[in-house]
Fold each of these.
Amino acid sequence: MIGHLRGTVLVRDALTGTIVLDVSGVGYQLTVSWQTFAEVPEEGADCALWVHTHVREDVLALYGFERPEERRMFQLLTSVPQVGPKNAVAVLGGFPLIELLEAIGQGQQATLQRIPGVGKRTAERIILDLREKVEPLAASLGVQDDRDGEPTEGEPTDALDDEARAVLVNLGWKPKVVNAALAKAHDADPPPEDLDGLVRKTLAVLMSR
């Protein structure tokens, strides 16, 4: 079982939420949440990720995490009935980890339901099954500042919007809702300058609806 990988970023695909790491000549494809994706450096840079190896029948998939606490949260989420790896990644991508832990610990069902693919029953089940289990994890993290990726030279706004829109629609948000949130994200101070920043700020707008 693979638990950790360090290598060179070969592919960083925002649309599919996947990373390919070259580790000693072998390319490992990992699915990551948006929170982790935003921390992965550009292609050609060195990167280390914690890994969960998911094996089911004839499927073997790797999921990557920026820190072990996020991997632990993924494992807790997938222990909930009807919450598979895809839903777990979506839940992790919706909020910074500390905010997700607070939402579950405080029983904020409506907050969880803002995440695409998480309905009322799923949100109820996550809270019911994990409310007490997340307490040790939350205590180990304490209150941490959210970390934004380093700004890079921006692309033209229209092209950047198109890329961010594609990422968010792929995550399950409706195009009309995304368009409205993108407009608000551009009003942020400071305004987003790259794809990671724009998707993060737009996600924050979507989650605050």
Amino acid sequence: MAGRFGKLTKIPPEPAAKLLAQGNVTLETRLEAPASASVEAVLDELDAKDAHVDLLRLLSVALPPRERVWWACLAARDIVGTGVENETPCLLAAEAWVFRPSDENRNTAIDSMDHADKNDVTTHCAMAVMYCDGTLGTGDMAQMPAPPGASSIAAFAMNVEAISTRRDDFDSYIQEVIDRAADIGRGGNGKRKTMKEGA
């Protein structure tokens, strides 16, 4: 049976250190794994050390763009709710891009940030879409590089926002967010029970 982070078929085979460097992300945890260690190996080590924030950081850079944005959208849904009446323009546009990652939908996500309420945390989802391919957008903006790791940082921030809203089930929810990312990394939809809780 595969471990908690086994069979992450959606995640690139490059060493975790390379993906972290490309995303301009530094882990706070001192690793024993070599620089050549896979994402799975580093996730296992971080999990064993209960380094939850670093787990989220690594998952945010390891997940491909669509999967990363979907992970952020699920966190946003945990905050705003599942009903149509709770959709924000940023969240709706980001979800639309996940299901159909076209330039048109990307532009809609980018435009949604201009009209978002200043307290709308779901802008993180639209921002993850905006920077999805490492550029500032489509058309002429596609020639301009985005800040390194900007899409990953936005997805990470969205999940941290969701975690910060949980008081009664803070610890179990962190595990849910981590397992959700792992499930997405295996090609799932992120809507499964938490392995850490014995599911």
Amino acid sequence: MEAYEEMDYIDYLMEKAEKIGAKTKIISTETEEGKEFLKGFGGIGAILRFK
């Protein structure tokens, strides 16, 4: 049997992004843009850029 540490999914994603040097932004739902983002994407989204 293995033991796993419980971690919030958002914290997990932010940690993974930090390890590869990606930038993260938190968008507040207190703004109209934030409300629309939450409604349209469920709260998690990404803009991907490749070199």
Amino acid sequence: MQAEVNGKVIQLSEAGWLENLDEWSEDLAVEICKNEKIAELTGEHWDIINLARKLFHENGVVAEPRAFSKVMKKEFGKDRSDQKYIYSLFPTGLIKCANKIAGLPRPKGCS
């Protein structure tokens, strides 16, 4: 699978995960979100994407949903920290959808 961004072809896995994490960009995120059935990325989407990327770069691993919810609560308040909220923005959830759009590695056991 491939995505074309600004005239550059970027390799994605068969399931749509970024092959080379260094190639991630906000423009690529917009392309990947189309494959995830998200019409557009709003500020709320970007808050989650940027937080997921920050946590990955700080810890070297993709945050699991429960831990991510705790950080969301601390950063954005209770209303934006539960799984229902995340699923309302990312139909297949944090791990499978938001992290894919954020250009993070596919966690073990995730298709």
